[in-house]
Structure formats: structure tokens, C-alpha cells
Protein 1
Amino acid sequence: MKKITVFMLALAMCMSAMAGCGQQAQNTENVSKADENSDIASAKEYLSAMYRTMPATRAEDFEVVGKVTVGEASYKVEWKADSDTVKFESTESGMVKVDIDEKNPEELNFNLTAEISDDKGNKEVVSFAQKVPAAIVITEGMSNEEIVEAVYKLQDGLSVEGELTLTGKIVKIDTPYNPEYKNISVLIQVGALEDKPILCYRLSGEGADKLSEGDEITVKGIIKNYKGTIEFDKGCQLAA
């Protein structure tokens, strides 16, 4: 009877140990999966932090990463957009070029989405809101006034592609002529557009030293929106 009791006790202890080993193996597997998930989650957080402060408005193509590395592990990043006007192209450097339509006459709002994946099939997704402003289209035959109306739609920090030429009357000498740098800054009014003046910033060229209020001049250069001021950029020239 004692032998039977001892045998049953040993059997129970063995089964308990086996159950403990099984539970330990399961716990180890769960920890392993948690570690895998935390790694790719870290990759997501890293990518999110990388682009959290990137410009939300894009007027030209830009590049994003094709992979991220956390510790010794690398994660592939595949980019998508919810607009078929946005294209993606891998570069030799490993970056991904985001090709936008800079000449789209309509403003475009889209989500730029990154899908992060590892070699085990785990995936994470993060998105960034982006905007492409409506292109300022200047066509041949437009009047000076029509050009001014168009460039006044420029968003802050953006410029018109290519040089433009405008004729207007000087309504203010913003910065007097500087003989050292041979330039002057003046404000001109085009036609009857009194409420839409154009600043000619550091204007140079023959006769710039003799300009005064009331003179009618023709200016050629790049027009941009600088912190709310529509202006010919530095380097603009007096045209004949």
C-alpha cells in the first residue's frame, strides 16, 4: 500500500513539473512575441518621430526613407498615398522619391502612409497629412493685372516657377539706393490694383540709382510670397 502511495505521489509531482515546463514554454513564447511586436512598434515610433515635424505643405518633389533601423534590426518601409497623382520612385541611395504634380491647378490634400514590416510578417502603419497647393499658372498673353491677381494666391514661402515681368508705378521707396551694393527696394502698383502692391526687393540695373516715387518701371525676376509679402526676390532687374 505504501508503494502504491509513493508511486502516485511521484506521478503527481512529475505531471506538475511537466505542466510547469509547458507553462514556462508558453510564457517564453508570449514574451518572444511581445519582444517582436515591441521592436516593430519602436520602429513605428521612430519613423513617426522622424517625420512628425516635416512640412505639411509641399510644392515640389521630396524624399522619404525606404527603411528604418532600430538596434541591429532593419525594417522595410513602403509608402502609399490616397491620390493617384502622387507617385513613388526608389532611388539608388535607398531613399524613396515622392513625386507630386506641381502644376495641378487644384489644391490637393492627401494622406502619406508608411507601412513598416519585418522579415517575420509583422506590420505597422503610420500616416501623415500632406497638402499640395494649387499651382500658379501664368500663361502667355496674360495682362499685368491678371499676373498680379494670380501671384497674390501664392502661399507663404512659395514662388512662381520662372521669371516674370511686370510694369508698374513706384508708390514707395522701401529702402533707399545703396551705392555699395548698387540696389534699391521699391514698392510698385500695377494698373489699378492699389490693394495688391509688389515689392521689388533689392532691385538693381541701369538707372536704379535715379529712381523716385511716381516713376513707371518694368521689373523682371522671380516672384514669391515672403511671410505674406508678394515680392520680386533679390536679384530682380530693371528691364528696358
Note: The radius of gyration is 33 Å.
Protein 2
Amino acid sequence: MMSLTPHYGRRDSSMPINKTAGALINSVLLVFAVTAPSLAADTEQMIRDAVAYHDQAEYQQAIDLLREVVRLEPDNGFAAYELAYSHQANGDLKDCAKVAGRARRKIRNDEAQAELLPQLSMIQASCYSQAGDTRKALKTFEKALQVSPGDFWLHFNISITLANVGRLDEAIDHLETAIRINPWHPSPYYAIGSTYYESNQPVNAFLAYANFLQREFNTERCVNASRWMIDVMFSRIENDKANDSTTILLPRSPDMSSPEIAALDLALGLAAMTNAPDEKGTALDAGPIADSIARFISIAGEMKYDSDPDSFFVQHLVSGARNIEAEGVGTAFSYFVTSVAGVEGATEWLESHDAETDALVSYLESLAIQDAE
């Protein structure tokens, strides 16, 4: 069973998720921007001080200051959000939900603070979820989505709660919606890759991780994603040395509604089988792994998807492979994946192939520019 524990914050940052034998995902750091309304000078400074206390993990000091702001300005939704957030960080989940819920009721007819409503709903639902009250969490999310159906973070965060209770198909639906709303943000690709993996959809998982690694660099999540890509590929191969045979393990329930995905399931296994070690447990160096990754990305990027060319799979998963192929950086990207995963020899390859590495860096930088725009 996949376990996701959301923790909400103010700023974008790396969001580590740890994979264990019993749980693919144990924790996610979710973030979104909160814009402060116009505040009186004294309360504005109090909120800045409270944020500083929070950032130093001095949560009770932050709570005390923010309580005073809310007492002085009962309709200040931003201060209430910050107070709920500090309660959450301090483990005061009931207080977090109570503060957020009260603030939502106070500002629901205040157009100047309308943008805070989905954010207050998210933190309230998060605290319900962390407290184990999934019913209230989902009810809060669903009500918020009725009002703000195009809110990226609502779709992203409800997916975490749904995944925690094993409703993986619904979680995937919301993650796909989040990606359609904002195809540049790395987090939903990371989360959907793990959910696909848990749902026994290896091709989708592999491509989702590849898309994530084109959008985020140098974080613990990148290490996890790159290792999971390798695991998705090579865990499908079983060698029987005694009988001199190799078996490709296909998904228990392949997506037969798409002949292309069924073909890619086989291609993923064949790409790995070409370079799989003769004995289970034998470590591979970077060359064979990178070659297998590059081979599969090339197949996925060049395949024609006539059955449903406008599907989410084609438009938002395969697109990453197509872009890599179009830029001619498949080999460098594959060594980048193996390097981030810590495979011996990968970093040395990147350092000794300046032209290929520079082309990859330029391509990844161009994606970052598009994200910023």
C-alpha cells in the first residue's frame, strides 16, 4: 500500500519521497504560493516575524504572534492561513483544521481574499487527513473543487489523500488533471510515476519519472526517480542460468485498450533484456543501463500513436521522450539518469563528453525558461 503524508509549505523546494519495500511513497512535501492581502503595518511586521519563527522551527512562537494578529484582525485570511500552517507544523492538527475552517467561513464572501479560499481548504483537508479523518479530508477537498475546479494544488493534494487510502485510479485522474493545468511543475510527474508504479503500469511510471527528471535537478527526489526508472526497467527481467533462458515479466493487467502501450510494455522489457546481467544480483555499470534507457526512450519517442494521439499518455508522458529524441540528447539524458542514480561510470561519461553534455544542459535550461514564463 502506498502511503503519502502531505506537509504544506509556502515556497517551492525539493520534495523528498522515500521508497521502502512495504511502501512506495512515505512522505511528500507539498508547496504552493500564498499572496498576502494589504495589511496594517504592525500586523504585517508581526506576520513577517511569525514566518521567521516558523522557518526556524519555533512554531509556538509563530502561533502566539499569529493568534494575536487574528485577534486584532478577525477577517485576515492570510494570517489565519499562516496560523493554521504553523499549527500543522507543530502537530496541532485539530487546531489547524479549526482555524482554517473558521477562516474560510469568514472570508467566503470577500472577493479581495477569494484566492485564499482553496489554500485554506487544502490546509484544512491536509490536517484532517494527517489526523486520520479521510472522510472529512475528502469532503473538504471535493467542496473546494466544486468552487475552484481548475486549481492545480487542489487536484494535486486530493490525489495524495486518495492514494493513501488505496484509491489509486482516482488519484491518477486528479494528478493527470493537475498536469494538464500546469504541465511544467515537476511534482505531479513524480507523484503520478509512483502511483502508476503502484498500479502496475511500468511504461507510464517510467515515462512519468523521465518527465520529472527533465523538470527538477539536484534533489533527493531526483535520486529516487532515477533509481526507480532503473528498477522499473530491470526488475522485469528474470534469468535462468541453469536452463539458459531469460524471461520478460509483463504487467499482470496490461492496458490492452491501447495497442501502443502494450507494445511499449514489451519494448521496455526487450530494451532491458539486451543488457541484463547473466545472474540475479549482479551489478551493471553505467554503459548497459544508459544504453537500455536510451533505447527505450527512442522507441517511445518515435512510435506512432494512431489509436489515441490526443490522449494524456501521448500528450503529457510520451511528449518527454519525443522532445529528448528531437533534441538528439537521448544518450546524454540516459547517462544523466544513471549518474543521478549513483551508477559507477556515469558521471565520468558525462564529464568526458562535453558536446553531448552541453547539449543536454541547454535543453534542460530551455524547459526551465518555459516553466518560468
Note: The first helix runs from residue 41 to 55.
Protein 3
Amino acid sequence: MDVEVDGILVAAHELKAPLAVLRQLAFSFDEMDARGEHIRSEMINVSERAIRQVNDLAKIRRLEDGLFEMEPVAVRAVCDDVSHELKKLFNSNARDLTISYTNRSRLVVANRELLFSVVYNFLLNAMHYSNEGSSASLTVKDKKDKVRISIRDYGPALPMEIWREMREGWINKPVAMAMRSSSSGLGLYIASKFSRYMHAEVGAIRHRDGTSFFVELPVSRQASLFL
């Protein structure tokens, strides 16, 4: 593993404990006025999202052990779960999220836990970079013998070097993104690593008014009793 990336993973692991303490401290506050309750809620939500990313980084270490099994996964159910978890965040930041499902193939070959993280990180990225009052969109559609999950934002342009890396299939390490300066590219790095493990294709499309990130997964031919 790259020394720089390995250092990031070690640092992330060290951050998990203080983040958990911060979250617990926020829960321990006594009753407060409306503004205080809002601040407490934000503290809890931010710490929980940070802990999720730390956990995702820890999973990168475990990819080499092949512990994440591939199986038929109901792709719409995963997208529903992610959008439900992030809906409050979109609403509190005056962003809208539209969802469109047109896929006839309901099952893909993936690992549900890793796919959830891929969609989650793409959507979180879209929330941060869609302009206030605008909409981000999540679409799921068939693409030959695959299913494409696409997340579109309406923010600053994606830097050309990041677009090239995404076009080639994955990002080697987290990098700062010009015009998207509040991001280290951490979410995109996690999403690309997990997608590569699942043998899924990832990419990005640059628009005049934003970017679409997508992941394509092979259709599962196995019938499921859980649809």
C-alpha cells in the first residue's frame, strides 16, 4: 500500500475515538433552547458522518483480505437507504434531491455494504457542491448488461486531473480539488477503491454547470425472493 495513503488510514483510525467522544458529549447536554438544540444536532450529525468515513477508510485495509463477499444486491433498496439517511442533511442545507429509477434489472452483483458507501460518498459530495436552492439528482438505469447509478450535482467544475483519473477507473489517493476547496477528495477515493474491489466501473462526466459521478455494476442473473 502507498506510504502516503497508509499514513492517512492510520491517522483516520486515531481520529475515531475523539469523534466518538464528541458525539457522546453532544448527547449528554441537558435541555437547551431551540438554537442550542440545533447546534447539538449538527454536532451529532457531523461527528456521525466523520465516523462513517473513518470506518470506510478502515475497510480499505480489509479489502486485501477478500472479506467482502459479492452477491445479488437489490440496487434500488440500497439507493433508498442512502437517500433516506442523507435526506435531512440535504433539507437542512437548502438542497433538493430528486430520484429517478428506470432500471428493469433490479439485481446487481456487488457487496451491499460497499455499494452503500459508494452511493453515500457520491451523494455527500453532490450535497456539498450543489448550489444552495438547487437540486442534486440520483438516477438508476440499465446500460446494456449493467446497471448505472449516477449522481449529478450543480456545483463548480470538476478539475481536469480528477476527471481523467475517474475516466481511467479510480483515484489513487485523496487529493485537494480546486474550486471544490472544502474537499480532500476523500469520498471519491473511498468510492473508487470500493468500486474497484467489486469490479465495477466508475467515472465522471463534466457538465457546464456541474458534474455527474457514476458507478456501473454487472446485472445479476440470479432470481431473488427478496424483491
Note: Residues 3-218 form a domain with the Heat Shock Protein 90 fold (CATH 3.30.565.10).
Protein 4
Amino acid sequence: MNTIKLMAFSGLLGIVVAPAMATTFPNPTTPFSKYGQIQNVQNYSSNPFWNPDSPYNQRMPVPVYIQGTDVSSSDCQSVVGALVASFCSSRNNCIGMDVDDARPTLTVQLASLPSHNYVTPCAGYIDTEFEKYKQQNATAAPSGKQVSFPGATTPNPTANAQDVEFQNPYDPKLPEWHGDTWMQDMLERKQELQNLQSANGANDVQLARADFPETALDLTFTQRIQNDTTGYAPYAGASAYRPLNIESDPQYENRMGAYCQHEIQKLAVLNTDLATLEKCRNANTPFNECKKQLKGTY
């Protein structure tokens, strides 16, 4: 009887104590996730952009503009030059290609380089390095193409018949500096200036003396006193502007009347001459004789 009571008490105690000692996990099936992390540890990376799907070697954000870019110009030139050489060496030295054809690949390669941010400071060197590579390899023979053998050349039959000329090593020469005949250039420039000056009609290059207009400062002390004493009385009523000459109505009518009278007289003479010419034509009079009878001037 005591054994049955003890078993019943132990079962009751297990039922009461078991809920108190149970551990609560986010996933009731297993305390571990499929990534091998404990569930209650949400993020163990110091990178705030990390998530469980990120790669294990994700870079930390690098501040590159606190003190400027962390790549020098020489580094950009060497890095971009090496990438351009690697890109063009496998593409027939980029013959017939434009920089825009290579820019996407080179930009991705710059972004993939470790330790520095090469894209922002070095992207501007792609154009110069690409053009430099093409200029240095522009005369290179294109690979993958057959080049025809040059044709045979014939010797010059008059090679030995040419006159041989020897320069006198003691002939006086103009002074030179590193092979440049600077004295000859000076003489040519001097002659050019003389030819230009001769077009003006005078061979001399002297400036002609010009008399400047006199001002009040050119007057003597006595003349200044006399000028101040006279004042502006001689200029009373003078004006710096030319006034308009407006004629009155009677003057205008007289002028227009005289003009009209003159034109009427000219028309009368013209009518008389036309009548004279008409008579000469009817009478078959020669024009030279009829011209003497005209009163007007034509």
C-alpha cells in the first residue's frame, strides 16, 4: 500500500515539476537552424548589412571619401593600363573596337579588385589608357590573318650613274644649337618683317612724331589767369547741338510752287519737242536736221 502511494506521489511530482524545467525554443522540433546557428542568436556579425544568406567573406563598408579616395593617380594608371592590356591582348589588340565596347568589362573588373575602391577614382582613366594602348599597337600586324609575301623588287639601273656630291666640311655655316639653325630662323623672320614693312610705302621703321592737341594744362600761368578772368562770357548763347532748320508754311508753299512751275515748264517744252518730232516724221525729215529744232536738252 505504501509502494502504491509513493509511485502516485512521484508521478504527480513529475507532472508538476516538468513544465517548470522545460526550455522554450523558437523551433519546438530542434534547437538548431539549418544554418547551424542557435536560434536565439539573431546576428553574430559586426556588419550591419549581414544576413543569413550573405557570403561568409562579405566586405565591410569602406569610407573612401573621408580623406579623399584611397587610390593615387599612378595606381589608377598602372591598374587600368594592366586591365586594358589584358583585355585587348585576347581581342586582336582591340583593332576596330571602340572604348565603349571595352568599358563595361573593364568597369566590372575594377569593381572586382580587392583592398580598394578602384571604380570611383579610376573609371576616368579607361578612355586615356585605351587610346594609349591602341596608339602603341596600331601598327602591329593583326593576328589570325594571312599576310601576302611582298613582291620582288628590281635594282635601280641608274644607281651607279648618279653624280656624287661632296660637302665642304670647312664651309662657313650659321650657328646652330642642338642641330637647330636658330640664326637662320632669325634672319628669315627679319627679312619677313622688312617685306611686310615695305608694303606700307616706307622702308624705315621709325615712328613719326605726332603733335597732341593742346589742353588747358598746356597754357602758362598768365594765360590761365586771363582765361579764368574772361570766364564763359564769350560762349553765352552757344550750343553744342545744331538746331533744326524748320521752315514756315509760307516758305514751304513758295518753294513747292516754284518747283511745280519749273516742272510745268519742262512738260511744256517736252510737249513742244514731241510735236516737232511728229512733224518731222510725217515730212520724212532726217533726224539730225530735226534734232536742231528741239528746245529741250536730252
Note: The longest helix spans residues 249-282.
